[in-house]
Here is the input.
Amino acid sequence: MTFDPGILWAPLAAGLLVTATHAPLGAQVLNRGIVFIDLAVAQIAGLGVIFADWLGHEPQGVAVQAAALTAALAGALLLNWTEKLWPDVQEAVIGVTFIVAANAAILLLAVNPRGAEHLKDLLIGQILWVRSAQLPILGLLSAAILAVWFGLRGRMGRSGFYLVFACAVTLSVQLVGLYLVFATLIVPALATRRLSRGRLAACYGIGASGYAAGLLASAITDLPAGPLIVCVMALLGMVLMVGTSRSAVHGSERV
Here is the structure.
């Protein structure tokens, strides 16, 4: 099967931008023990998109983007509040929030003749349909998120983290889907947790390699890009995890 490699550059650029914002946030999520927060916030943002679509707004219009961001910010503030009240069960609260948002979305989609297609787009995304015209604004917003994160990370507190996280997830979920948002956030952070130096660079390497190899495999096999990227990224992460675990074991034996 032949393909034009030129069609992959815009999706790859989008994937790299998603990786740029999610890699540094992933380690923080892992450290806080709130691994499933991205699924919950992304699902809430998706619920905002579905609700705006249910009201009749254009899929890529300003109203839909505003609804997604508003929903995600509201969800982030809600989870920030619940962490203050019930920090010992925050992960369970996050799980319940995700389930409620997911089922609310299903109820809205049940009356939409294109509901199944919308649900599929929310879960696995449409990264191959990213257009080059979307990249400048995506790049500017990603740069703003990174500037806030690296510039104010030590002073933003828990509320600031949740709000920055909500903005990053809202930006990515409509491009790459719920599954890739979770994979990009958690897989690199989990795979590099034993690294004491160069962890962020390794996270970026896993994310970038996963997107590049997954997109290439999708173009060659004509299989869905999102699931392929998730599987490739997970495989790369597993290889690194095994390698660093063995190094740690051998190091302790020498000591």
Q: What stands out?
A: The chain has a mean pLDDT of 87.
